[in-house]
Amino acid sequence: MKNYIELIQETFLFYSFTPETIQEYIKNKKFRVVEYFKNNTIHYEGELCEKLEIILSGAVAIERIDKNGNILTVAELNENDVLGGNLLFSKNPYYPMTVSAKTSIKILEVKEDYLFDLLSKHPFVLKSYLELICDNAYILGNKIKNYAQKTIRESILNYLNYECKKQNSNEIVLRITKKEMAKKIGVQRTSLSRELAKMRDDGLIKFTRGIITLL
Questions:
Q1: Residues 44/98, Cβ–Cβ less than 8 Å
Q2: Cα gap 164→42, rounded to integer Å
Q3: Measured distance CA(175)–CA(173) in Å, rounded
Q4: CATH fit for domain 2-138, picks 2.60.120.10, 3.30.70.3550, 1.10.510.10, 3.40.50.2000
């Protein structure tokens, strides 16, 4: 129980909840922690989404089966990522792809009615949830743009130029991790790091821990 409470406190939605509050929600079954073994199917394509799920530990694969029966991994989700966030209150709340456990995982489940109650009573939970929905929409939009026309470098420069204007400075303070930045522009973290290094070598940027300067 104690381990579950600590994991839940590390999530983006419930970080401000006290251990006592979380323990009460678990006791009242408003919060439910479930565990899956590696390769277990969590959701099938077309399955109804009835709850929000936050990954507490481990990794999840979003998969699609092609016309030849091959399983293609479309995306990977890790700790503090969410399943069902964009579907739960949708008019078409069905999983578009299969969701499987890539490793042994722990997931926090919050049913739709309990989540709605929490969003209504706790403004900070509502704000974090809306940020999640907006960020996911932004990430999806960027992925579509990237697939359609942009190179990784162009995507990075677009993001950095946006932050320059926002912060009114060529020295951009990164308030997110590289992993989060990669998600925002719709690329893999390793690809982001590799391209940033190339841009530095080409004299376009310089960077120190937490700061990127556009030259």
A1: yes
A2: 41
A3: 6
A4: 2.60.120.10
- Domain 150-214, CATH: 1.10.10.10
Q: Which tokens hold the place of 48?
A: 């109804």
Rounded to an integer, what distance in angstroms lies between the CA atom of residue 54 and that of residue 60?
Answer: 11
The residue count of the chain comes to: 215
Ordered per-residue pLDDT tens for the chain, 215 residues: 668 898 998 888 898 899 999 999 999 999 999 999 999 999 998 899 999 999 999 999 888 776 666 677 777 888 888 898 888 888 889 988 889 999 999 999 999 999 999 999 999 999 988 888 877 666 655 655 555 556 788 888 888 888 888 888 899 988 888 888 887 777 778 888 888 999 999 999 988 888 898 88
Q: For residues 170 and 164, is the Cβ–Cβ distance under 8 A?
A: yes
